[in-house]
Amino acid sequence: MDNIKSKVMDQFGKHAEKYVTSELHANGADLQTLIEWLQPQKTEIVLDIATGGGHVAKALSPYASQVIATDLTKEMLANTAMHLKPVCPNVSYVIADAENLPFLDDTFDIVTCRIAAHHFPNPHDFINEVARVLKPNGSFLLIDNVAPKEKHLAEFINSLEALRDESHARCLSIEVWRNLFASSHLQVIQSEYFKKTYTLPSWIERTANSQEQIDRVNQFIFDASEESQKYFNISYENGVIQFLQIDGWIVMCKKEC
Fold first, then answer.
1. Per-residue pLDDT reduced to its tens digit, 29-49
2. Of 6, 15, 24, 36, which is most buried by a Cβ count within 10 Å?
3. Phi, psi (5° rounding) for residue 196?
4. Predicted confidence band at 13 (pLDDT cuts at 50, 70, 90)?
5. Transmembrane residues, as ranges (predicted)?
């Protein structure tokens, strides 16, 4: 198994409860956008890849026939199931690698993946698997952090994420994602670029394993170039970093028939 996947299982296994209760993950406006764009039907079967705290599965559950929530990390999935089972009886839970899904071809009407793909070391394999398990004309909706097109800004945010979270692989640019979709016959139907605001102390502490790691992340941000500070809208209060903004993207594709 890729080293990054081992780190994902270790990281999310230790911090599973934090992702269930995270305000950022649980209450994002993108969850409502997801429902509005997908328009799920009661006859449809949904696959939620890398479900994490199960927020997408929970949001889609009332509108779909069945939701399969998958995650690479057993502890994360078990914790999510404990929270969701009493309120979402049509959600099932499967341990699965996003890059090697244990499902037959043309199985799902809808596939989703929210705030997780930047942990996947082989995004080309991930998109190939999405296209394989999706029914013809089925919908795929991806929400994730994305890298700016400027190389030095992309390197800054990916280096910062790797310092903060050892399970981070890479944020891709929108252009790279579009090329991956096209290579797997997924046609972009609708997309929206946005900025995500993070409260720094809680954002760092959610994944940090030591005070030393927290200090390294803060120092990296302090040392950022003026251009990076401005682009990511890094703000301070009494010399303490308070907020940072990262590029986000929500995109819906259709599988070509």
1. 899 999 999 999 999 999 999
2. 15
3. -110, 125
4. very low
5. none
Amino acid in the structure at residue 54: G
- In the chain, the DSSP E strands lie at 45-49, 66-71, 91-95, 108-114, 134-145, 186-199, 235-237, 240-255
Of 67, 62, 30, which is closest to residue 47 (Cα–Cα)?
67
- Here the tokens at position 71 are 């995650």
33 close to 250: Cβ distance less than 8 angstroms? yes
pLDDT at 246: 97
Who's near 3: CB < 8 A, 6+ residues apart? none
Query: Where is average pLDDT lowest: 26-30, 86-90, 176-180, 186-190?
Result: 26-30
- CATH code, domain with 71: 3.40.50.150
User: How do residues 194-250 score in pLDDT, each as one tens digit?
Assistant: 999 999 888 888 888 899 999 999 999 999 999 999 999 999 998 889 999 999 999
Parallel/antiparallel/unpaired status of strands 45-49 and 66-71? parallel
pTM check: above 0.70: yes
Structure tokens at 168: 């981070």
- Domain housing 42: 3-197+247-255
207 vs 216: CA distance, rounded Å: 13
Token pair 């559950």 in the structure block, residue: 61
The verdict on residue 176 lying in a domain is yes
